[in-house]
Design goal:
By secondary structure, the chain is α+β, with helices and mostly antiparallel strands. The protein contains 14 helices and 23 strands. An eleven-stranded mixed β-sheet has the order 3-7-8-14-11-10-9-22-23-21-20, sandwiched between helices. Strands 16-15-17-18-19 form a five-stranded mixed β-sheet, sandwiched between helices. The longest helix is centred in the C-terminal third of the chain and has 26 residues. It is globular. The structure holds one RNA strand of 77 nucleotides.
RNA sequence: CGGGGUGUAGCGCAGUUCGGUAGCGCACGUGCUUUGGGAGCAUGGGGCCGGGGGUUCAAAUCCCUUCACCCCGACCA
């Protein structure tokens, strides 16, 4: 029955040869997503949605712990409402989808389908906030938004996507700034601890910042093909939206003041990041904390007496110990199952066969390094949980090493141009938009962020990597998704 | 929106040059043997050949037209 590995059908493209093709193959063949009949919209299948649910649960707990409450605001935004913040409208206008008819009747005023909700929420905050006693207002909503994109790719850029958007209102700029940073830090911790993705946090350039924001902060991750992915943003909106939507309060001194607002968001794009950072040529690799299935039990020689029963017993034990466990008792060959579950990225595979039962042990294989080990059935719960923690940490370390190997310093333009072909480039920058645009035109790379962590600053000199004028900022450059 | 490509079974494709019974692989159903790295044999089901119009005795195939999707660019979480 056993064929050599060479004869096995190649199910997925190699990452090294064609990363985009590998990405598409993997997500389609592992029941993550499907293409829908509407261009640019994806269908998230249960396995893919399971990842999103785990993200939601864990992130939402962080929001609650910092005093935020969930709410829901309308999908439709009247055009007049959208128009109140000039910069914002200008930024989003090219990608807004409009509703022009209700039934057979043309609407007197067309309705935008929210590309983001600052406007609707701002108009409500305007009604709700009267006094300094009402502040701060800390809300979040989990919802879908629509941006009419010209080119799309599942998870990374879809016309409709799921996200969370936090919106807060504060009495002054400083409090808004604190909130902006607090949420960015929650995102950073989430990325690194839960998704096992190391990120660079910092501030966006004026060109790249959110339309209507005073300052945009971001976390940027490096993918295996050398392109950067923005995984989350946090904006200090200053009093821009408060002025546009008339969000005011009476201060303790009885003066009418504008609020200062923030917004912050992360989306299903993060799932694309998880796939592109951790995946390998065998398929997906999920960090345990976002793995819909953390351990799969494969009964070997199922027809033999006691095997299936033992497998079922182990599943009950592991589930009771909080491990998301699947028992694959399907009528497939063992080899097929091995490959299938590896492709789906399940962190641990547990094999139970007659030999194991005789020895009171199981065979456990880690997805991250494919190491095989015998584990006693006694105390299996703890062993598995410990192994899951190991895999979680191992994946982070591996991803960090990958990113570091793709990050270089540049003190002149040639080094920058070369470095951005394969990853991040740290360099000094004058802060001028013309320079930023010229670099993009010449290299295809954009400014990703001005990092808070200025390690390596001393190695970068003091002049702009492009124009040679005195530098103002340390900047990460990269090609981006 | 520019440039390139593809539409034939659930999926991947051949057939189109030169019109003549709708094919292959995988998947799926059934039976038996298998099960520690993608099983074997037997047997079976499944098609408005993207849509519309033409030419012809006859169209997956030729002509006209339309629609959809994919890839590469420009724009974007």
């Amino acid at each position: 029955m056993a064929k050599s590995n060479e004869e096995f059908v190649q199910h997925i493209a190699s990452r090294a040869e064609d990363f985009p093709q590998w990405y598409t193959d993997v997500i389609l063949k592992t029941d993550m997503v499907d293409y829908s009949d509407v261009k640019g919209c994806m269908v998230i299948k249960p396995y893919g949605y399971g990842v999103w649910e785990l993200i939601q649960q864990q992130m939402d707990a962080k929001f609650k712990a910092t005093g935020h409450k969930n709410a829901y605001f309308p999908l439709f935004i009247p055009e007049s409402l959208l128009l109140k913040e000039a910069e914002h409208v200008e930024g989003f206008a090219p990608e807004v989808a409009w509703v022009t008819h209700g039934g057979n009747e043309k609407l007197a005023e067309r309705l935008a389908i929210r590309p983001t909700s600052e406007t609707v929420i701002g108009s409500m905050y305007s009604r709700w906030i009267q006094s300094y006693r009402d502040l701060p207002v800390l809300m979040n909503q989990w919802c879908n938004v629509v941006r009419w994109e010209k080119s799309t790719r599942p998870f990374l850029r879809t016309s409709e996507f799921l996200w969370q958007e936090g919106h807060t209102a504060h009495a002054n700029f400083e409090e808004a700034q604190e909130e902006t940073m607090r949420m960015l830090e929650i995102y950073r911790e989430f990325a690194e601890k839960v998704m096992a993705i190391p990120v660079i946090v910092g501030r966006k350039s004026e060109k790249e910042k959110f339309a209507g924001a005073q300052a945009t902060y971001t976390m940027e991750a490096m993918m295996q093909d050398g392109k950067a992915l923005q995984m989350g943003t946090s904006h200090n909106l200053g009093d821009n939206f408060a002025r546009g939507y008339d969000i005011t309060y009476l201060s303790k001194e009885g003066k009418l003041e504008y609020c200062f607002t923030t917004s912050w968001g992360t989306s299903t794009r993060m799932i694309g990041g998880i796939i592109m950072v951790h995946g390998d040529d065998r398929g997906l690799v999920f960090p345990p904390r976002v793995a819909p299935i953390q351990a799969v039990i494969l009964p070997i020689a199922m027809h033999k007496e006691g095997v299936l029963e033992k497998a079922q017993e182990l599943r009950v034990r592991l589930e009771a110990a909080g491990v998301r466990t699947e028992l694959d008792d399907s009528d497939q060959s063992a080899g097929w199952k091995f490959n299938q579950w590896e492709m789906k990225g399940v962190p641990l595979r547990i094999e139970v066969g007659p030999k194991d039962i005789a020895n009171n042990q199981v065979v456990v294989v880690r997805r991250d390094n494919l190491q095989k080990q015998f584990v006693p059935m006694d105390g299996l719960e703890k062993s598995i949980n410990d192994l899951l923690d190991d895999v979680q940490q191992g994946l982070f370390d591996k991803a960090l090493a990958m990113r570091e190997s793709k990050t270089v310093n540049a003190t002149n333009f040639d080094q920058l141009a070369e470095g951005v072909q394969t990853g991040f480039v740290r360099a000094m920058w004058c802060g001028e938009r013309e320079c930023e645009e010229a670099i993009k035109a010449k290299t295809g790379a954009t400014t990703r962020c001005m990092p808070f962590d200025t390690t390596h600053r001393d190695e970068l000199g003091d002049v702009c990597v492009h124009c040679g004028k005195p530098a103002k900022h340390m900047m990460y450059f990269a090609k981006a998704y």
